[in-house]
Amino acid sequence: MGNRLRLLIVGGYGSFGGRIVELLEDEPRLTIIVAGRSMKHAQEYCAGRKSPQAELVPAAFDRDGELAQELTRLRPDVVVDASGPFQAYGEEQYRLVDATIAQGAHYLDLADSADFVMGISAFDQRARAAGLCVLSGASSFPALSAAAARHLIGGMTHIDSIRGGLAPSPFADLGLNVMRAIASYAGQPIVLRRHGALVTGYPATEQMRFTIVPPGGVPLRRRLFSLVEVPDLRALAELWPEARTIWIGAAPVPEVFHRLFIGAAWLVRLRVLRSLAALAPLIHGTMRTLRWGDHRSGMFMEVAGKDDRGRSVTRSWHLTAEGDDGPYIPAMAVAAYIQKMLAGHAPLPGARAATRDLALADYQRLFAGRSITWGVRHEPLPDAPPLYERILGSAWKELPAEIRAMHQVQTTALAEGRASVERGRGFLARLAGAVIGFPAATADTPVRVRFDVAKGIETWRRSFGAETFHSEQYTGTGRDECLLCECFGPLTFAMALVLKDGRLSLVLRHWRAFGIPLPMVLCPRSTAHESVEEGWFRFHVEIGHPLTGLIVRYRGWLVPVAATDRGP
Questions:
Q1: Which CATH number fits domain 387-560: 3.40.1000, 1.20.120, 2.40.50, 2.40.128?
Q2: Which of 49, 46, 52 is nearest to 33 (CA)?
Q3: Angle at 475 between CA 471 and CA 480, to 5 degrees
Q4: Rg (alpha carbons) of the chain, rounded to whole number
Q5: Is the pTM of this model over 0.85?
Q6: What's the pLDDT at 2?
């Protein structure tokens, strides 16, 4: 492979193709041919990109046309099919693959059709003979999902199950072609592996709930996932034939729409309707109308089995993406492959599902600079680690040493320092502070914190001068899974431990009074974080409410008493 690559993206100005262009347009060694049926749209797209380093070339390209002539004219080194839906390609579904090999070019696609992806191996002998890589399914599933599963399975000797799921943002436009694909298989019989046997499943009629909680990040709200037909159901079974159960789902929101779709899928399963394919435009329009909730998306993979000591373990990989960064993830596998080719590390020749050639490390550069958080969790954790380590998972090691030292509590620990305290002056603010027992206002006072651990619960007794108040902290369950729950008398606050730029913040997610969940609109506002300044552990806690204004603000420094008695 030379120093430059000519990359032809079929569907290059579409939802996925356009994002591939955006991910690669800063690479000066690329000529990117942005192709589609409309030359006008291709030209408008290329003209709209600002200062690309790659050469962008608009082109008219009809994948149902005279492909040999069109490929000869465009002379690509790599062809990427980002159009679809691959479920609707018909009897000649591999025309572009066949023509690409004949042209002597590598081939990648973002296919989500299990039949299409697994059928690509029919071209393996031709691709090997030509020294070409032909990879199908270079997208979230199965390329990224397989990379995540491989990362989790390392060191395991037995695999009971592999599960995964995609949780799109309600504001992400999945595209009509994607909805056509989903509608075509909803409620239709498919084959999947369950408990060691091949059984019949029905997409969108089987559900599970899961909370995507990347270590050190803000979790997604607990989502309802429904079975989908994706290549993973067969591709991962081919990679790990010992896995007894393989299940992949999707969790569209709002849930009211999701449940309506589940009901429609059951009508297909019960043969009341033949298919939902004709309803795809209506479903797509409804999804674009019913948009509310957090503009966040996520993905997870979970592997359960036994480790090299014969112990039952569950390992899970979690990813969340904020705002408009989520829709870039399906396009990242193609971008990663192209980057490897430019670096002289093209995948081995042959035609196969895109499950073996990428590792999570290949995504690092693509994740960087975007609001994407990911990490790994292990259950059970070895050696009963402290509370904060259990919740933070793989992000624990990224904490500054001074913060880790403050939370490495096994039975009892003490810390001392100094703090300032501010109190709200209104009647309601004073009343709320008195109920919880917050200390009186002071510009400077000695502070002492005692940590006691019993049965997984940490009790914090905070003494500001002669005044003391306490709370209890523990790991949440259910809708509070992987959150830190803190109890002040009858009030319980569930918070995410968020690590960013060396600062550990406690972000409120839910709250309860006397065990009864309450709406967040009524919840007190809180800003709480721990940091390290000039080598010293610092804390900052501020609590208020729209009705009361500031209730309390206290901040200062602490050191474990065994470490030193001196302060900054």
A1: 2.40.128
A2: 46
A3: 105
A4: 27
A5: yes
A6: 52
